[in-house]
Write a structure and sequence with these properties.
Rossmann fold; 10-stranded mixed beta sheet; about 40% helix
Length: about 300
Amino acid sequence: MKINNILFPTDFSRCANQALSHALYLAKHYRAKLYMLHALILHESDPFYPTYHFPNSEELNDRLQSLSKTQMEKDLQNFSFDDLSIEKIQRNGVSVASVIFEVIDDLSIDLVVMGTHGRRGLGHLLLGSAAEEVVRSAPCPVLTVREKKSPTPLERIDRIMVPIDFSTHSQTALAYAGKIARVYNAQLQLVHVVEDRVHPSFYLTGKQSIFEFMPEIKSRSEQQIEKMCRQANCSDVPSDIFIIEGMASRDLIKFAEENQTDLIVISTHGLSGIEHFFLGSIAEKVVRRSPCPVFTVKSFGKSLIEL
């Protein structure tokens, strides 16, 4: 992969600081320039209602920019980054995600590295997630790091999981995973989840698994995944194939937890609007709940490899 510019958005949380270590490591490994970004969201400008303006908004903005620059320097003091080119940026905007998208376009960003708090339930419904919006809509790959009590350093990647649904999108993810696996001498975990459930009317037959009704589904899936490996030019990378029955958004996470996965490489279809509201995104659910970093590649926008 060719990575020249890496963007690291930060809100100065513990979660963001864990992602910073990954951003610094990748910048050093790929000899890339690292941009640290803090978005200033004041929500004070409404030209039709002056009473909603903050008093001395310019002074407040200058003060916040100064504080964010000082905090960036403080966060970097905990790391060694000799010979790295690092630029600190503060920008105003109406939302964190919109500022990130603006910087991606302005600076030709190749990769975004950011933390995610992994909110679920009502907290996620009300607050949403900037990370998930970036994962869904950014025109470049995104590496998300969920906050952990004892985070695993990115330089220790032994097992890389790639969810396979036989689409061109998962073919792209597999190609990326092969490149990453060669860098770290890692093994691929190629996982296909069969989501078809047996209807209750068939329970009288004594069979409750799709594998019992269609025993050939496993061998056919394995053959197709092997073919995809050849097409993605990663047949030489050590890999194991897993065909499991269940629900993709739930059982991919369960697999990662039970099989010591160090990194997940997954593709997102980039759904938006009403389609995203009803269908959601398996990739976003994986990002929210994954026990390890998630490298999300896109079916659109910039590619870091030749497919």
